[in-house]
Design brief:
The chain has 253 residues and is an alpha+beta fold. It has 2 domains: 131 residues, no CATH class; 88 residues, no CATH class. Helix 2 crosses helix 4. The longest helix has 19 residues.
Length: 253
């Protein structure tokens, strides 16, 4: 590595840490409650909440980091052992005058919350990886209705219904999570859309037609092309990993 590359790397890391330390008012929750839980006594995860709010039940700090930065479990490392073992209930509300309540803003607010209450400092690392790229298929996109709805989606393992979804959010929030692989948006399609998707899960043969799954449903990758006019292909890319540099037990409410 040359000295110029080293300086660029240092500056990039400093910019990242400064961004963490100085969120704008639009990127912070108005009020937040963080309470320890037993960890084994209830289900764990993120519940549906009011626009711009956060409602996390029995989650670890690592799970909060994964949510806030949109990364997988294996993309977060470092920190003390309690980052993986201590569980919390986190309820946070946005400012009353908030005008941007899409999931991306809620993630930014969660980043600010972690920095404020846990004194979290992360160091980003980029690594080369083979990623799945979401691109436009030969005959062009279809089934996408332009929308001004608040970004949101629901899925049950074989049906997807999205409202106000961008292609980047569809790739990062739904496809990457479903396929457990990095997926990047390279469609070149801007804007937000309402659309649905139906497919047959991998274990459909064992499930038969239970829970609404029918033999006529195509596999997910085929469904994406047939129903949306998009497709996934392997391409070279990079993934961002998060290393916990500093963290403390949360401050009192």
């Amino acid at each position: 590595m040359t000295s110029s590359h080293f300086r660029v790397g240092i500056l990039a890391t400093m910019a990242f840490l400064l961004a963490q330390a100085a969120p704008t008012s639009a990127q912070t929750f108005a009020v937040a409650s963080i309470k320890p839980t037993e960890g084994q006594s209830m289900n764990s995860g993120f519940r549906r909440a009011a626009p711009g709010a956060l409602n996390a039940t029995n989650v670890t700090v690592k799970m909060l980091i994964e949510y806030a930065w949109g990364v997988r479990e294996d993309q977060v490392s470092g920190g003390p052992g309690w980052v993986d073992t201590d569980h919390y209930e986190v309820v946070a509300k946005p400012p009353d005058d908030a005008t941007a309540n899409d999931p991306a803003v809620t993630r930014l607010r969660t980043q600010a919350l972690l920095a404020d209450r846990f004194h979290l400092v992360l160091r980003p690392e980029k690594k080369e990886a083979t990623v799945l790229a979401l691109i436009v298929a030969k005959n062009g996109p279809k089934g996408l209705k332009e929308s001004t709805a608040r970004a949101d989606f629901v899925t049950n393992g074989h049906h997807f219904s999205g409202k106000g979804m961008s292609m980047s959010s569809f790739a990062a929030d739904f496809l990457a999570g479903t396929l457990t692989r990095p997926v990047v948006d390279r469609t070149g399609i801007s804007g937000a859309f309402d659309f649905t998707l139906d497919w047959s899960p991998d274990d459909a043969s064992a499930a038969g037609n239970a829970n609404g799954v029918t033999p006529s449903m195509p596999p997910l990758l085929v469904a994406i092309q047939e129903q949306l006019g998009l497709k996934l292909e392997q391409q070279k890319g990079t993934e961002e990993y998060m290393v916990v540099e500093k963290i403390e037990k949360p401050t009192a409410n």
